[in-house]
């Protein structure tokens, strides 16, 4: 594996770099994440090719989580970034904590108490081989720890220089607002962003539940599963391919979701619209997500480098989504 450093990051003129909520941080509107694929489908060399292709397309934001592959996903990403020689100031790196990787050890999983947060960030930084992460997400809400304790712990990490911004993932609007209000009351660092699922088939939380939060607290969103775990590629119309993530051991739940009749019916209605635009359904689905002004970045994933190239061609599709086309898509999603 080559260890020669790459050139300084060059922004892609086709890529939009959006502010993360009301913060001053800018992230590429299409980004790259490692959920499921790193370690289970991608080794270091394959991950390197995927990340390099995303980088070349103008992606500056890379997402991970402590729980992905039991920490190995972070380790792979850390090794790849070091091998590629990227300058730390050129990329935005995130991870998420909550589930833990200690196998049921008290205070080391399924919690956001101060002790866990303290230990978890140290492990994340060690595996990613960095001194700090730009974004740290609370991967789920913790009903057994007072939100105030979690807010103080996350704010402390920012004061310590281990994290630049903190946020949540799959929290309810009420939980996010409670955390924000606590931080505001005690003059602590407030949650800046949420990482929710959002795609053509899953819209309610981002479009309805969080609606007030965008205006009231300036919430940013780094959305995951923009292709509905692959449903919106259209490749599951004839069942689950053997080389797909849904065929992996332990992912039978995903296979059931991918082949659900209602989802497949919607896909069949959307495909002619994509064909009319001269793009793939996946590219149209990714571009559609970016049309929501409350989406800061769309996290893409891939199990091979060629998929990264195809996904980032969605940048060429964004301008094709005129109000007329968006209306056609809206009709397809309603029917």
Write the layout of secondary structure elements.
Elements lengths: L16 E3 L6 E3 L1 E4 L10 H13 L4 E3 L8 H13 L7 E6 L16 H15 L4 E6 L8 H13 L3 E6 L4 H13 L7 E2 L9 H6 L1 H6 L3 E4 L28 H7 L2 H17 L3 H10 L6 E4 L4 H8 L10 H12 L1
Parallel strand pairs: 3-4, 3-10, 4-5, 5-6, 6-7, 7-8, 8-9, 9-10
Antiparallel strand pairs: 1-2
GO molecular function, one term: oxidoreductase activity
Pfam families: Aldo_ket_red (PF00248)
InterPro entries: K_chnl_volt-dep_bsu_KCNAB-rel, NAD(P)_OxRdtase_dom_sf, NADP_OxRdtase_dom
Task: Give your account of this protein's structure.
This protein is an alpha/beta fold and 335 residues long. The chain has a domain at 17-228 and 292-302: Alpha-Beta Barrel (TIM Barrel). It has twelve helices and ten strands. The longest helix has 17 residues, at 261-277. It is globular and about 55 Å long.
Short description:
The chain is of the alpha/beta class. The chain contains 12 helices and 10 strands.
Give keywords.
single chain, 335 residues, alpha/beta, TIM Barrel, 8-stranded parallel beta barrel, two-stranded antiparallel ribbon, 40% helix, K_chnl_volt-dep_bsu_KCNAB-rel, NADP, NAD(P)_OxRdtase_dom_sf, oxidoreductase activity, oxidoreductase
């Amino acid at each position: 594996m080559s260890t020669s450093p790459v050139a300084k990051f060059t922004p892609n003129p086709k890529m939009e770099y959006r502010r993360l909520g009301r913060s001053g941080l800018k992230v590429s509107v299409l980004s790259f994440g490692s959920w499921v694929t790193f370690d289970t489908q991608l080794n270091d060399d394959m991950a390197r090719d995927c990340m390099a292709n995303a980088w070349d397309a103008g992606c500056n934001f890379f997402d991970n989580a402590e729980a992905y592959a039991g920490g190995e996903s972070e380790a792979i990403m850390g090794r790849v970034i070091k091998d590629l020689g990227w300058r730390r100031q050129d990329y935005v790196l995130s991870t998420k904590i909550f589930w833990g990787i200690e196998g049921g050890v008290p205070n080391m999983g399924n919690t956001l108490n101060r002790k866990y947060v303290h230990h978890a960030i140290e492990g994340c930084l060690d595996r990613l081989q960095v001194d700090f992460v730009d974004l740290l997400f609370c991967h789920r809400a913790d009903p057994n720890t007072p939100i105030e304790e979690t807010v103080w712990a996350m704010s402390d990490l920012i004061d310590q220089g281990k994290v630049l911004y903190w946020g949540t993932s799959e929290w309810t609007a009420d939980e996010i607002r409670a955390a924000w209000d606590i931080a505001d009351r005690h003059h602590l660092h407030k949650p800046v962003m949420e990482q929710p699922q959002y795609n053509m088939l899953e819209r309610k939380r981002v479009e309805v539940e969080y609606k007030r939060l965008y205006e009231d607290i300036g919430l940013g969103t780094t959305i995951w599963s923009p292709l509905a775990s692959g449903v919106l590629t259209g490749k599951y119309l004839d069942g689950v391919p053997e080389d797909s993530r849904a065929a992996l051991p332990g992912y039978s739940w995903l296979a059931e979701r991918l082949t659900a009749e209602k989802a497949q019916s919607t896909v069949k209605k959307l495909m002619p619209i994509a064909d009319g635009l001269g793009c793939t359904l996946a590219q149209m689905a990714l571009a559609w997500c970016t049309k929501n002004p409350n989406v800061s970045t769309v996290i893409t994933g891939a199990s091979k480098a060629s998929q990264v190239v195809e996904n980032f061609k969605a940048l060429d599709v964004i301008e094709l989504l005129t109000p007329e086309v968006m209306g056609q898509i809206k009709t397809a999603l309603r029917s």
